[in-house]
Amino acid sequence: MGAIVTTDSTHVHVDFNDIQNIAKYKKSNFRRSSILNVSHVYRDNGNSQYIEISITQSTHVWQVSPDGSSSTLPIASVDGVVPSDIDHLYELMVGIQL
């Protein structure tokens, strides 16, 4: 499964569901305007890809992917849309920024 990301006009809500032991969170909530950066990262000649999300109120950089590969947090859906691949997840995550 993975994390369920939902948004409203001002906030991002994340329910970590079955990955809360990996994420070390059960749920998270932060302002959409606090998302500083969304980056599509390539490592090892493109064999390892993930999305990095930087948030102002945290020194932690979230590393996510659709399937949890490369030791990332899996994202099951963003506002009800299941990401089909890493490029689609990137577009969904950029779309939640204000």
Series of secondary-structure elements, N-terminal to C-terminal = EEHEEEEEH
Structural class: mainly beta
The residue ranges in which pLDDT falls below 50 over 5 or more consecutive positions are none
* DSSP E strands, number: 7
Sheet with most strands? 7 strands, mixed
Mean pLDDT figure: 89
Report the radius of gyration as a whole number of Å.
12 Å
As a percent range, the share of helical residues equals 10-25%
Key structural traits:
mainly beta; seven-stranded mixed sheet
Could you explain how this protein is built, in words?
The protein is mostly beta strands. The protein has one domain (3-95). 14% of the residues lie in helices and 44% in strands. The chain has 2 helices and 7 strands, in the order ββαβββββα. It has helices spanning 20-23, 86-95, and strands at 3-7, 11-15, 27-31, 35-43, 48-55, 61-65, 73-78. Strands 3-2-1-7-6-5-4 form a 7-stranded mixed β-sheet. Strand 4 and strand 5 form a beta hairpin. The longest helix has 10 residues, at 86-95. It is globular. The model has no long low-confidence stretch (mean pLDDT 89).
Give a summary of the structure in a few sentences.
14% of the residues lie in helices and 44% in strands. The protein has helices at residues 20-23, 86-95, and strands at 3-7, 11-15, 27-31, 35-43, 48-55, 61-65, 73-78.
